[in-house]
Amino acid sequence: MLMSEAELERTEERAESAESKIKELEEELHVVTNNLRSLEISEDKVRSKKKALKISKLNMCKMLYVQYETCVKWIQSMNSVWKQSLVIFYRISLSSFSI
After folding, report:
1. Distance between CA atoms of 61 and 69, rounded to whole angstroms?
2. Which of 21, 29, 57, 73 is 20 to 30 Å from the Cα of 10, by its Cα?
3. Per-residue pLDDT at 97 exceeds 80
4. Number of C-alpha atoms within 13 angstroms, CB side, residue 97?
């Protein structure tokens, strides 16, 4: 009977130790679960920001293209004005030599 009581005590100690280890592992699992949730939330935020930046980039490209077209039109109109000015200058030059 002494042997059985000693074995029972050791078994109870091992059971308590195992329960303690289980509690530690459950706490660790809880921490890991929370970290995973935080990472998932962060990943969603990054995706949202990335999407917003892509939209912003597209809008900037569109605005830049509109400005490019405006500049081209302005340059074309200035070419026309420049040509007209050259014709006027040429006529004035010719008329001043005719005198």
Report:
1. 12
2. 29
3. no
4. 5
